[in-house]
Design brief:
By secondary structure, this protein is of the alpha+beta class. It contains 13 helices and 13 strands. The strands form four sheets. The protein has a five-stranded mixed barrel with strand order 4-10-9-5-11, surrounded by four helices. A three-stranded antiparallel β-sheet has the order 1-2-3. The protein has a two-stranded antiparallel ribbon with strand order 6-7. Strand 1 and strand 2 form a beta hairpin. Helix 3 crosses helix 7, helix 8 packs antiparallel against helix 9 and helix 8 packs parallel to helix 10. The longest helix has 27 residues.
């Protein structure tokens, strides 16, 4: 989604096979990365949070996309220069509050971009691949993953009352714009009402103006600044999409439409594939929300579906040969992606291998201690799982093999980890 014509045109430049889609308001095209295609729809919604809320609430149920991004320009408040890019960790609605006898009293209100996309944005910002998509003048561009302030008013100078408000109540905001809060508000409301289709969302802004020296001729015309900022924001956004595609779009996808025509699939097998895909989507949703406990339970459900056991089934050593390597890698990668590589089977395997990679009772207990599943000569209860990414030990999740009553690593995990290949 974009607000201005310059922003819309900048997004268009990264798409091929563009065509109008369903109505005059939407256009779709193809973005290609590493041989994989992503269908992208774009729309220009106009200025302001109110317009953005309306259009986002129309777009989300119409297309049910996996991710949505608002891409455009913003004014720089601090630490940024013309042409820099800011991917929002959170958006402040700086106009929320009330008027009293003492004047306007700010009541901070904020919404966050999706945690998984924030993590991906940090990886993109720390590298230089996104700069290659700009094509020129890359040495002077930087990317930040930081808070942004959003409201209906244009801030013209540091002497303005709004700037004083920002400095007093939102002093970690690096940029200011007019649509991001409405965008995240609409998708937050949509996700709360939707049981299955959870949309990940993020706001990405290129800096076209600075509050200090906002209209200085040294920075070029307003038109040229907006064009540059829009292009840089789009470059960052599409590198973020490429990162997302590498994680979620696989040539080995379970989509039955992608199977060779000579491959016959039974109705029962088709139902199994649908069930697995449904669980994968649920797993991704819980992980994107950093809900590690629910994600762990969904991982258990997913593995039971893969080996065709009912919801009350128990995984055993005999099930290990039945796990396809492709599915193991998908699940591992989802956990690693959303936890910044802190939780995954590969992380657990690395820890095990650093202990010598032995299959014995002593190694089993020591690994249980390291992963936070065992302490003081006992295996912990499931209620003792640590739900905080910061506080949990490396490799604490997933723990799909553990029963509800008694947590035990056992030979099953060690054999399972030995099956997974390091990337």
């Amino acid at each position: 989604m974009t607000a201005l014509k310059a922003e819309y045109q900048a997004v268009q430049d990264f798409l091929s096979n563009r065509q109008k889609d369903r109505s005059l308001f939407y256009e779709k095209g193809i973005f290609t990365s590493n041989g994989q295609n992503l269908e992208v729809r774009i729309v220009q919604v106009g200025k302001g949070n109110f317009n953005t809320i309306i259009e986002a609430l129309k777009t989300a149920p119409k297309f049910k996309p996996d991710i949505m991004a608002f891409v455009g320009v913003a004014g720089g408040i601090k630490d940024v220069a013309i042409g820099d890019v800011v991917a929002a960790t959170k958006i402040y609605d700086y106009e929320s509050g009330k008027v009293s006898e003492r004047g306007f009293l700010s009541t901070p209100n904020l919404l966050q971009s999706s945690p998984g996309l924030i993590s991906a944005a940090r990886r993109v910002a720390s590298g230089r691949e996104w700069l290659k998509r700009i094509g020129k003048d890359t040495d002077s561009c930087s990317a930040f993953v930081a808070p942004i302030a959003s409201g209906q008013k244009v801030v013209a100078a540091k002497e303005s009352q709004i700037f004083e408000l920002l400095r007093s109540h939102y002093n970690d905001a690096t940029a200011i714009e007019m649509e991001g809060f409405g965008f995240l508000k609409a998708l937050s409301d949509y996700n709360q009402r939707s049981d299955h289709n959870q949309i990940e969302a993020i706001v990405i802004r290129g800096i076209s103006d600075l509050i200090d020296g906002k209209n200085s001729f040294l920075n070029g015309s307003e038109e040229s600044r907006q064009a540059r900022a829009s292009h840089n924001a789009s470059a960052f956004a599409f590198e973020l999409f490429a990162e997302w595609m590498a994680q979620y779009i696989s040539p080995d996808s379970d989509n039955t439409e992608q199977l060779p025509k000579s491959y016959e699939i039974s109705h029962e097998c088709s139902k199994k594939v649908c069930a697995i895909n449904f669980s994968l989507n649920n797993l991704r949703r819980y992980l994107s929300q950093n809900d590690w406990i629910e994600a762990n339970q969904e991982t258990t459900n997913l593995f039971l579906k893969i080996v065709e056991k009912d919801g009350n089934g128990i995984l055993t050593i005999d099930d290990i040969p039945r796990f396809p390597n492709i599915e193991l890698q998908k699940i591992n990668d989802l956990w690693a992606y959303h936890s910044e590589k802190k939780f995954s089977f590969i992380k657990q395997k690395e820890i095990w291998e650093n202990m010598g990679g032995h299959l014995n009772d002593e190694t089993e207990k020591y690994l249980g201690n390291c992963l936070g599943w065992r302490e003081e000569h006992r295996w912990k209860d499931s209620s003792e799982l640590v739900s905080s990414l910061r506080k949990a030990p490396d490799g604490h999740f997933p723990a799909f093999f553990l029963s509800e009553k008694c947590w035990r690593l056992n030979l099953f995990l060690l054999l399972f980890l030995n099956k997974i290949k390091n990337k």
